[in-house]
Amino acid sequence: MQVEVVMPKMGESIQEGKILRWLKKPGDTIGKDETILEISTDKVDSEIPSPSAGVLTKIIVPEGDTVDVGTVIAMIETDAASAKIDVSQTASPHPTSQISKQEVGATTIQEKTAVSKKPSFAEIVSGTVRPRNGNRFYSPLVRSIAKKEGVALEELDQLAGSGMSGRVTKNDILDYLTKRTLRPISVSPVRHEAGIHRIDIQSLQKKYPAPLYEIVQMDNVQIKMAEHMVKSVQTSPHVQAISECDVSGIVNFRAMHAERFEKQEGYKLTFTPFFIDATIRALKEFPVVNSSIEGDKIIYKKFINFGMAVAAPTGLIVPVMRNAEAKNFLDIARAINDLAVRTRNRKLTPDEIQGGTFTITNYGVFGNTVGIPIINQPQVAILGVGAIKKRPVVVTDASGTDAVAIRSIAYLTLSFDHRIIDGAIGGQFLAKVISNIEQFDFKKAF
């Protein structure tokens, strides 16, 4: 029996995916749930398991192509004796647009019935049929081609269409892409949403010749992270507060109980659950730090979805611990370990890195003492944790006598959105986090 392998729906907001790499080739025997390919969405890279055991008979969509969710990308024959292997590439990329046959098959009726006359280059760039209000309709296929080739919306709006009612067809945009290399439209540089612009690799190779230089294309996750960070800086006026925190108590507690914890839980006890637990309790007292902004409105969240930055093989990923306000210390530790392991093994779904209301990033694991993190939009604050280091500090005993002692100290940085969080609130919140850490209730730990 033939089984279709389709581009999976990885989350409610995910409408398409890009095939990064096929791990199997036609003729390979595959077990059910065995990983057969890697895909990339605009949220995360993921490994995709086989829906059935059998033989991979045909790869329909090649590496590098982006297709809609639900598109058939390969075929599996469950009866090995009946398997007919097709090694031909039935979805070869278009030489200019890199569009698969599945996308070509999605052409709208209006495009199929387009008039045969192709506009000249002058007509294409004239944009004479563009609606004055700029609210022009483009089919999913045309939008997909434009996205792949880095054609900005303002550039697309200038194309004269040969379809019904002046609609831009697949042939129109492909014809334009061919001519654009010779006479590009005079508009602003083609850019991604947040200022990451597309650059021709040939021009860079002339500027940075081998072997002195190596040019590497950003992968999908890196591009999205770059766009997100640029957008955050452009959106939020960042203010930072930095304070030192005496973490001697949690350092000593961890040293005493690390072995027992690992035997009980099966993984190592880190400092992260202590910081997250302390921050969750502070967020309950300062709900504005757990909010977001929509226009001139503040959206208060009645829940805490806690994000934590994890250094994954493909770049920085921020998985989200949902409803963290209802978790105790052990629940938090278990959730952290689960998310971290699945992040590094590329087992997260896009839904698991969305919907965060507050984020923590621990750059101290790399030995950095102080850092200035960027807010993870649409959140309004992020906590950075520096390296824990022993140093001499002045301590005061109950009688008021000062003395010098060796303590474990970490610097905590709070970056916050000054549109709704002023210095007083930001400082008080950070002070509360530090107080929660320094006065941690170890009886409730485990």
Provide an overview of this structure.
This protein is α+β, with helices and mostly antiparallel strands and 446 residues long. The protein has three domains: 91 residues, OB fold (Dihydrolipoamide Acetyltransferase, E2P) (Beta Barrel); 82 residues, no CATH class; 207 residues, Chloramphenicol acetyltransferase-like domain (Chloramphenicol Acetyltransferase), CATH 3.30.559.10. Helices cover 28% and strands 22% of the residues. It is built from twelve helices and 19 strands. Strands 9, 12, 15, 16, 17, 18 and 19 form a seven-stranded mixed β-sheet that branches. A four-stranded antiparallel β-sheet has the order 1-8-6-3, with no helix packed on it. A four-stranded antiparallel β-sheet has the order 5-4-2-7, with no helix packed on it. β4 and β5 form a beta hairpin. α4 runs parallel beside α6 and α10 packs across α12. The longest helix is centred in the middle third of the chain and has 18 residues. The protein starts with a strand and ends in an 8-residue tail after the last helix. About 13% of the residues have low confidence.
